[in-house]
């Protein structure tokens, strides 16, 4: 790398309630610390980082530059220590997700599994000069080995949406895929965090829970439906509508991960922002239908793969930070919950070494009349999706 440039990359969001600056780790890349301190401000403006984290990282580089004033070059050693497995790594979401995970300084080993075409993906990624070791696993016979001693399993496997399809249309195919993969997780890395991306998430997470229960290894604190994309979209659309800096915007999204079950709480947006009734309806509808927007724009060529990979990488980095001892990690996720009368519900949670540490129940207090009505309206549909997932596993067991 030329002495005139600095490469800064992190997937460390701060979606916190009164958060403190979160701990950051930098890549083991050779760089000029003085120039890094000067240029990091620009780099961070478009990163995953919240403004508190950005300030902390800028200060860190400034101090490093001062201490290294007698040396123009120095190295930051990686402290990678976690093993991640991506099941469905050769797919439209899996490939860009694998690239982003390969760039994380918290990952020491990256296992890529798929039923075909994963060897080339792994070979390609292995040429990237970041610390994690990439391994490939193909087909059912190698699934178990892809999960040995893994800390976090991410499951994007399944078929994508096509024009005219709802997430519910994907159920029959993806339900079987998730069931099979989670059975393997239960047998080989039962203590791992499990991140479910495969749609319909409203049903596949309950499917995973039932499989884990039958295996006797279910820990509700470690099973997550990844709804981060709804938050990412909400933040982006609100920032655009209100001409705000993206780095400042944080909109909690609750409910589920399909259609009207997606409920952005615009009244809880940070920074505090006033919306007209028309803006609330317009933004809510666009956030709920963001996936359809992409499917239609791709005209049959795919669904939301890049933005989903970005969102999944953000949640994964949050999980790794929590595993690494960061005590100030908050994200929205679809998990087993007692915040409502539904067994599973997406809300903002605090993450820790053992998974979900706390639910941020205050997000559900003081809702607007519009949000209250929308919350009640989504419950029947979400309840039906949950029951469909549970019933799928129970019927499979009965006919086995």
From TrEMBL:
One GO cellular component, as annotated: mitochondrion
Domain spans labelled Lactate/malate dehydrogenase N-terminal: 83-225
One BP annotation, GO: tricarboxylic acid cycle
Pfam families cross-referenced by the UniProt entry: Ldh_1_C, Ldh_1_N
Assigned EC number: 1.1.1.37
Catalytic function, reaction form: (S)-malate + NAD(+) = oxaloacetate + NADH + H(+)
Tagged with keyword Aminoacyl-tRNA synthetase: no
Coiled coil: none
PROSITE patterns, per the entry: MDH
Highest taxon of the lineage: Eukaryota
Domain Lactate/malate dehydrogenase C-terminal: 227-392
Gene Ontology molecular function terms on file: L-malate dehydrogenase (NAD+) activity
Bilayer-spanning residue ranges: none
Keyword terms, alphabetized: NAD, Oxidoreductase, Tricarboxylic acid cycle
InterPro entries: Lactate/malate_DH_C, Lactate/malate_DH_N, Lactate_DH/Glyco_Ohase_4_C, Malate_DH_AS, Malate_DH_type1, NAD(P)-bd_dom_sf
EC supergroup of this enzyme: oxidoreductase
Quaternary structure and interacting proteins, as annotated: Homodimer.
Family: Belongs to the LDH/MDH superfamily. MDH type 1 family.
Protein name: Malate dehydrogenase
Organism: Ipomoea triloba (Trilobed morning glory)
